[in-house]
Amino acid sequence: MPIPSATVRDMAELIRELRRMAPSFGSCEFWFRGHTQLRDWPLVASVHRYFDPARERQLALQFQRGAVGRTPRCPPGDDFGAWLVLMQHYGLPTRLLDWTRSLVVAGYFAVLHEPVSEDAAIWLLAPEQLNLLATDPVDGICLLNGEAASAQVRSLCEAAFREVSCESEPFAVLSQDLDMRVLVQSGAFTIHANSTALDEHPRAADFLARFDIPASCRASFQEELAAMGARRSLLFPDLYNLARELSSANGQNLKITERQV
Questions:
Q1: Residue of 257 and 183 predicted with greater confidence
Q2: Is the pLDDT of residue 13 over 80?
Q3: Same domain? 152 vs 243
Q4: pLDDT per position as a tens digit, 48-80
Q5: Minimal CA–CA distance to 114: which of 32, 34, 37, 40?
Q6: With the CA atoms of 124, 89, 73 and 62 taken in that order, what torsion angle do they form, in degrees rounded to the nearest 10?
């Protein structure tokens, strides 16, 4: 069965199509993910796009060693789920794929970036439906770290750091310890053992849908999202992004760069 999809031209049409599709997924919450390009962008975690398993483990261990002394936020060495969230936060490719529980946040990431000449898309995920389809199903949404994390998820996390056997299916997960960026972006994740795209799952239509945004409608989406409070300085709450937003709002397209101190 093909993945449900619909073309939407503004936020009102997006919400109508979401309400139309929602009953087919049952009673559950939805997560969303914005893609600036509709084509050639499968739902694959970043580390599996670029690296093999050996290189993934090498990167993870190098990050662990290098992080000690650079931040007071380092998790315990064997809390692999927390380490994955920290790595994801700072831009290292990981086996986590970002999602948000906010349709507005997903819309921001879909249309407020280049390239403006491309059609964009917003993916919908029914996370509880995904977790029920596993060989060893989980009722509800898994925790990525902490004592309540399931054995399947613990194994998926450990395999990013150690050469252990792990052929688990993807799971929808939440982090127990949220940093400010994950919190304001209503962040959530799926975790993946390999490069098989989530949209290529044999039962993807049971937990995925897609809303396509024509390139000609990106500007109107941007205006509506700005009116809804989708601002960079709120979604990325640091001084760098506040400065970028203020300079842009005052008509100055300044290139703000990091400076050596």
A1: 183
A2: yes
A3: no
A4: 999 999 999 999 999 999 998 888 878 888 899
A5: 37
A6: 120
Q: Which helix (H) or strand (E) holds 248?
A: helix 239-249
Choice among 19-33, 126-140, 197-211, 237-251 with the minimum mean pLDDT: 237-251
**Shared domain check, 119 and 76:** yes
- How many domains does the structure of the chain reveal? 2
Cis peptide before 115 (omega within 30 of 0): yes
Does residue 46 contact residue 59 with C-beta atoms inside 8 Å? no
For residue 130, give its domain range.
5-226
Asked if residue 130 and residue 259 are part of one domain, the reply reads: no
Q: To which residue do tokens 């937990």 refer?
A: 207
Do residue 177 and residue 253 come from a single domain? no
* Of residues 141, 108, 142, the one with CA closest to residue 122: 108
For residues 153 and 201, membership in a common domain is answered with yes
Which residues contact residue 53 at a Cβ distance below 8 angstroms, ignoring those fewer than 6 apart? 159, 163
Please state whether the predicted TM-score (pTM) of the whole model is above 0.90: no
CA distance 259 to 207: 45
DSSP state letter for 148? T
The rounded distance, in Å, linking the Cα atoms of 148 and 141 is 11
Q: How far apart are CA 24 and CA 38, in angstroms?
A: 23
| Residue 51 backbone dihedrals phi, psi, to 5 degrees | -135, 155
- Answer yes or no: do 130 and 248 share one domain: no
